[in-house]
Structures are given as structure tokens and as C-alpha cells.
Write a structure and sequence with these properties.
This protein is α/β, with parallel strands linked by helices. It is built from 25 helices and 21 strands. Strand 13 (401-407), helix 14 and strand 14 form a beta-alpha-beta unit. The longest helix has 32 residues, at 212-243. It is globular, with a radius of gyration of 31 Å. It starts with 10 loop residues before the first helix and ends with a helix. The model is unreliable at 139-145, 506-510, 648-656 and 708-715 (pLDDT under 50).
Length: 715
């Protein structure tokens, strides 16, 4: 038999027909792809599959025993036959139906045990498989110990209607039987320290195990390998960052940072002080800082970032703050300008000595304002430039960009961040921020190239937020009381948000069962909140109108703001004390936590009312109850991760990573990820370019190429 390399095209091994299905259904094109298409479970020949949980429409592979088999002739077409075979696993029964296959009675005799694959259908209230694929498990004669049945354990693969599990197993066997020697991406010393199998042994044991312990051992090895290769990517990136040049930005005695800190109208928390000092030290180094700052909603990340930006300005550089939306960029610009006061009025009448200038740069600015912002950035007059994606355009130039702050990092791709970072030979320092608390496993997997700092404390004087679930369908009186509470807050001089999940008439991409912004605004204006000043804010408004609406709300010109999730992050109106979230069951745990963080930001306590019509026993109601029961964003983030799909957890930033993870769960395997990270850091520290580990280097390249390919597809 010819020697098969991992890179061999599948069609040359398994044939065109099978290869086409493998590619179209699973994206498998070469031998290595198929060998990494691991079984989803294993069937013990001595144990029959449970039939009691089968559902209509489900494509299944089952193992069962034939109870009866009979041919039936059609009344008006005697030459045509219908063969019905009833099988059981001891807990349930299933009918197998074949048309024009009377010969099936010769193979599907009573007590025959076999594997059957097909889509579960229903006929006259009875579950059935029509024309299922079939392979006998037992039969007359001896079973060779070398055969797949002699092993006693049958792998069950992710399969399709066009290609049953055992067909995939046969294809895998063809590849394994002719496979040439393999280079292992996990170095021998790393395997030895952890008692892991080599890659060839592990492939045999995961695809052709003779005992449960074998496939479990192989699964653990490949799970570690996935984490190890991923962490090697991050370790190389971190090592490369350590070699990149950056301009040191030391603190300046009596500079803007020091003067700003002295005039703050509040006392920094111990966490803010500690992290501000850590970031300050990072900025003094001659290689670029790459740090993630995560913190609870309202924990004061912006002030910490502003201290860092001022340190860079004091040292002669500039800072850019990149925000995902114009509303958030404008909010940051207003907040920073307000906090700095005359320190932000460089070159202006009334500006403090040594003051800088803070500019806003977004795509919707008028030509005159935009040109002024561009000129201030290019000349260095603007020490701080706040903007959206407009900041990363090629024509935007900085005199000396020393620090890039990226807010809500999860909304940007890594390439967008790099658009500014890679523009100059001397790299700027980078600080990325997120108000969505990230469990440690996810942080290590998604942000493994960043050092992480966490703010957990809330500023002194911040009042807790009371959260209550309002079951509108069960208790309409509670809904009436919700609007009364809004009125009471407004009568007391406070303001309110009403958040909805969609804007107007539902299109194909929107949920037609939810209340729209336009409908809710009209109902409130004419009904329970009539007479109040009610504004509207959503993402499809022109940028200047969005900014004007947000400014008016912040200035107290609106009592109530009906909005979509455009207010989810960064919006800071201390006078807003109550939020009503309509159709709250349509939002995720972390999103609800973010939304309620918009109230209670001043000295008055906040109130968040989660309105739902979901069933009391539905999972959605459980999510809402969990949010109402806890204000700890880190606790809720863990719950959110447990509830969500793995791909949703990783998000778009790591599409390549997501597609590469088959056995590793960033939710459940923290110990594996931690161990792999330690191992990868050690290997890369000793061999940064992986010259002595060619198989690992190839695996790293493949993962990075996948990530880049996925990015190109998204654009």
C-alpha cells in the first residue's frame, strides 16, 4: 500500500464520491482533516443504544436488536413491497421501513443486532427510519479480534444522511492503515512530563480503541494538543511584542497626569490606584505594553485609562481612544473633556498652562470639523483623539502615537486593532478595555496575547441597583406599577431608560413577537407616560441626531429615553435611576448586566425592571431570575458562559481558533488550558521561532492561517 501523508487529498484515498460529501458536510479535504474528525461517542457492542429519547427530524445512528421483520404488498400494486422491521434496545421500539427491498428479510432476521442510521420520521404516531443505512454487529461465525467488531467498541462519528457513521469509520481506517510516520506537534519532553501518548498512538486509540481507557487517554492527549498549539500562538506573539521597539513614556512630576489626579472630585479605589500604577510602569518600558483592563460595570476603567493617556501626553506623545460606536465615542469625548476642564483647553483662552487638546473623530463629522480634527492629530496639537473606526483609516496620521486605548475590545477584530498599531516602526503601547467580565478560561483563550488587569471594586458612594423581574403576562398589574415607578422617579427629578430589542416593523432578521421601539414610544407617549418628555435613540439614526439626542438626555431635556441596545455600554448619565427592559428574555445574561449598569451611576440608588412574557418554567426566565439575584458581573459572566454555545463565547475575534477546537472547551477545561499555557510559554522561551519544533511550528502556522482566512471571509 502506498504511504499516505497527512496532506494527501482525501479523494485519492477514499474516492471522489465520499470525499465530496466529507468536504461539503464537514469541510474535510485532506487526510489530516479526517483523522481530526473525532468520534462524538462510542458504542459498546455489549450495550444497546437507548431509543427512548429519539426526536422527529433527528439524524441518528443507533444500535438495536431485530424483534420482527415482514414484507407487505401494496393493495393495487402487488409487485411493489414495503418491508417493516421492528427493532428494540430494551427501553423502546423503532420501526425501520424499506420500499422495494424485500430481500432485507434475509439479512434482518429476528435477533439480529445491527447499527442503523437515518433521519427519525413519524407515520401514524409511530417513530420510524425510512431506508436507513445498516450494518450487522453480530452474526454467525467467529469475529476476528482484528476486525472493528472484535474490538468491542464502535466509534460513532458526526455523520450526515449522505454518509453514515460507519462509512466515515471505513474511510478513517483507509487513512490510518496507509499512514506514513507522523511528526508530533507536542514535543516529547512535554508529553513525557504529562504522561501523554504520541500522536500516532493517540490516533489509533481514538479511532480504533479496544477499551474505554484507550479512547479516553487519546481524547485527553488531543484536548491538551489543541490548547497547547493555541497557547503557542499566543506565546510567540507575546515574545514578538517583547522584541518590538516602543518609546518609553515616563511619568512627569507636575505634569498633566499628576495635576489631573490632584483635582479629581472623588477618591480612587485601591484597585484603580494599583492598576494605574501597573500601567504607568508598563508605559515606562521600551517595548510596547499590551494589557487588557476588564472591570465591573461602573468600576472606573475610563479614569484609569485617562491617567495612562495623560502620562503619554506628558512624555510628548499622543493617545487615541477607539470606540465601537459614535454614541460611545461622543460619550467618551464629553466625559474626558469634562473631567479635564481647563487641562483640555490647550491653545485656547482660559486653558491651563501646559494643557492639551481633546479631539473627536467620527465618520459623520462635517468637513470643517473633520479637517480640524485631522490637522490637530497630525500636528500633535491634540494630545488625545477619541474616535470610531474612522481613526484607523489610512489618511489619519498622528505626530507621535504613544498609546492606543481600545474600548469594548470584543467588538473589534484583531486586524482592526492592528491597523493603527502596525502603521509605524515604533509601536504604540496598547490598552484594551471591556466592561464585560471575562472568566479566566475565556481570557486565556481569546486574549492570551495580553496581560490582564481586573477592577472589581465600585467607587465609594455608588448605590446598589435593585433588579426585579416583571412577569407582564401573568401579572398585568405589575406592568402598571412599573410605569408608575418611572413616573415617581421623574417626579423626583430623575430620568429613565426604556430598552427594546428592535426598532420598527420586523423584517426577516427580527423577532416579530417582540415590542418595537416605535410601538413602545407611541404607546408610552399616549398612555402611561403621557405628558413626560420622551426621546428615541437607535443605531439607524443619523450620527448627528444620535449625538444630539444623547446630549439632550444627558442635559436633562428628556425625562425618558426609549432606546435599543445602543445604550448598552459607556453611556453615563448619573441622573438616570430607573431602566425598564422590554422583552428582557430576548437578551443574554451579560447584556442585561451591561444594560442595567446605565442606571444608579450617581448618588441615588438604581432600579432595573426586566419585563417578560416568557413561561415561568422556561430557561429564559431562569436567566432573568439569575440576573435579578446577583449584581456580581463576574459571577454572572460564568453563568453566561455555561449557558451559551462555545462559538458564541469565543466570538468573532477568534474565528480561526473556534474552528480549530474540537475536544477542548474554554468553558470546562480551565486546568488543561492553564497547563498548556505553562508548557507553551516554556517551549517558546527556549525556542522562540520553533526551529527545533517543526511540527509545532507547522501547527501554529495552520492555526494562524485559518484565523486570517476567516477574517478575510468576514470582510
Amino acid at each position: 500500500m502506498m504511504q499516505i501523508e497527512p496532506s494527501t487529498r482525501l479523494r485519492s484515498v477514499v474516492g471522489d464520491k465520499t470525499a465530496k460529501v466529507l468536504e461539503s458536510a464537514f469541510g474535510l479535504t485532506v487526510v489530516d482533516d479526517l483523522l481530526r474528525h473525532y468520534p462524538r461517542r462510542y458504542a459498546d457492542i455489549g450495550q444497546l443504544t437507548d431509543l427512548s429519547d429519539l426526536m422527529v427530524g433527528q439524524h441518528v445512528t443507533i444500535m438495536a436488536r431485530v424483534v420482527s421483520a415482514k414484507n407487505y404488498a401494496f393493495r393495487n400494486q402487488p409487485r411493489k413491497t414495503r418491508t417493516e422491521v421492528v427493532v428494540t434496545d430494551g427501553t423502546g421500539r423503532l420501526t425501520l421501513t424499506f420500499f422495494q427491498q424485500a430481500w432485507r428479510l434475509k439479512t434482518l432476521t429476528e435477533n439480529t443486532v445491527g447499527l442503523f442510521a437515518g433521519e427519525v420520521g413519524e407515520y401514524r404516531g409511530t417513530l420510524q427510519l425510512t431506508h436507513p443505512d445498516f450494518e450487522p454487529v453480530d452474526g454467525s461465525g467467529e469475529i476476528s479480534a482484528d476486525s472493528r467488531l472484535g474490538r468491542g467498541i464502535i466509534p460513532i462519528y458526526p455523520a450526515t444522511a449522505k454518509l453514515a457513521s460507519w462509512r466515515i469509520e471505513q474511510s478513517v481506517a483507509l487513512c490510518l492503515d496507509g499512514l506514513a510516520s507522523l511528526d508530533d506537534p507536542v514535543p516529547a519532553d512535554v508529553r513525557a512530563q504529562r504522561g501523554l501518548s504520541d500522536v500516532r498512538t493517540a490516533l489509533e486509540e481514538i479511532h480504533r480503541p479496544r477499551a474505554k481507557e484507550q479512547w479516553q487517554r487519546a481524547r485527553d492527549r488531543f484536548r491538551f494538543e489543541e490548547a497547547f498549539v493555541l497557547q503557542a500562538v499566543f506565546a510567540q506573539r507575546r515574545h514578538a511584542l517583547e522584541r518590538d521597539p516602543a518609546t518609553a513614556r515616563p511619568a512627569l512630576a507636575g505634569g498633566l497626569r499628576e495635576r489631573f489626579a490632584e483635582r479629581l472630585p472623588f477618591v480612587l479605589t485601591e484597585g484603580q490606584k494599583e492598576i494605574a500604577d501597573v500601567i504607568g510602569s508598563d508605559l515606562e518600558r521600551t517595548h510596547p505594553m499590551h494589557r487588557l483592563l476588564q472591570g465591573e460595570v461602573g468600576s472606573g476603567k475610563t479614569v484609569v485609562a485617562l491617567l495612562a493617556m495623560l502620562q503619554v501626553v506628558d512624555a510628548g506623545g499622543q493617545a487615541a481612544l477607539l470606540a465601537p460606536t459614535e454614541v460611545l465615542a461622543s460619550q467618551h469625548h464629553r466625559a474626558i473633556t469634562s473631567l479635564l476642564g481647563d487641562l483640555a483647553q490647550g491653545g485656547m483662552l482660559g486653558g491651563a498652562d501646559g494643557a492639551t487638546r481633546v479631539q473627536l473623530l467620527t465618520g459623520s463629522l462635517g468637513a470643517k470639523t473633520r479637517n480640524e480634527a485631522l490637522l490637530d492629530a497630525a500636528s500633535g496639537e491634540a494630545g488625545i483623539v477619541v474616535g470610531t473606526h474612522a481613526l484607523i483609516q489610512e489618511h489619519v496620521q498622528f505626530a507621535d502615537l504613544g498609546l492606543l486605548v481600545v474600548d469594548e475590545q470584543h467588538r473589534f477584530g484583531v486586524e482592526q486593532r492592528s491597523a493603527l498599531v502596525d502603521r509605524s516602526d515604533v509601536k504604540p503601547h496598547v490598552l484594551v478595555m471591556t466592561a464585560t467580565p471575562i472568566p479566566r478560561t475565556v481570557a486565556m483563550t481569546v486574549f492570551g496575547d495580553l496581560e490582564t488587569s481586573t477592577l472589581r471594586e465600585l467607587p465609594a458612594g455608588r448605590k446598589p441597583i435593585q433588579t426585579t423581574v416583571v412577569p407582564a403576562a401573568e401579572r398585568p398589574a405589575w406592568m402598571d406599577r412599573a410605569w408608575e415607578r418611572v413616573r415617581e422617579e421623574v417626579d423626583g427629578g430623575k430620568q429613565a431608560y426604556v430598552v427594546v430589542s428592535r426598532i420598527g416593523v420586523a423584517d426577516e432578521s427580527e423577532d416579530k413577537e417582540t415590542r418595537s421601539l416605535l410601538d413602545v414610544h407611541a404607546e408610552l407617549t399616549a398612555g402611561p407616560l403621557s405628558g413626560l418628555r420622551i426621546g428615541m435613540l437607535h443605531g439607524r439614526l443619523p450620527a448627528d441626531e444620535k449625538d444630539a439626542t444623547m446630549n439632550a438626555f444627558a442635559a436633562g431635556e428628556f425625562d425618558v429615553l426609549v432606546a435599543t441596545t445602543v445604550v448598552e455600554v459607556g453611556v453615563d448619565v448619573p441622573n438616570a435611576t430607573v431602566m425598564v427592559v422590554m422583552d428582557a428574555d430576548r437578551f443574554g445574561v451579560s447584556q442585561l448586566h451591561q444594560l442595567r449598569g446605565r442606571v444608579g451611576r450617581g448618588s441615588a440608588p438604581g432600579l432595573c425592571l426586566l419585563v417578560t412574557s416568557s413561561d415561568p418554567d422556561a430557561p429564559a426566565r431562569e436567566r432573568l431570575d439569575a440576573v435579578a439575584a446577583s449584581t456580581d458581573g463576574f459571577e454572572l459572566s460564568r453563568l453566561d458562559v455555561e449557558l451559551r454555545h462555545e462559538g458564541d463565547v469565543l466570538g468573532a475575534r477568534q474565528s480561526g481558533v473556534r474552528s480549530s477546537l474540537r475536544l477542548l472547551s474554554v468553558v470546562r477545561h480551565e486546568d488543561v488550558i492553564t497547563d498548556a499555557r505553562d508548557a507553551a510559554l516554556e517551549v517558546v522561551a527556549a525556542d522562540p521561532s520553533l526551529d527545533h519544533h517543526p511540527a509545532l511550528a507547522a501547527a501554529v502556522r495552520a492555526l494562524e492561517e485559518t484565523e486570517q482566512a476567516d477574517y478575510l471571509e468576514r470582510t
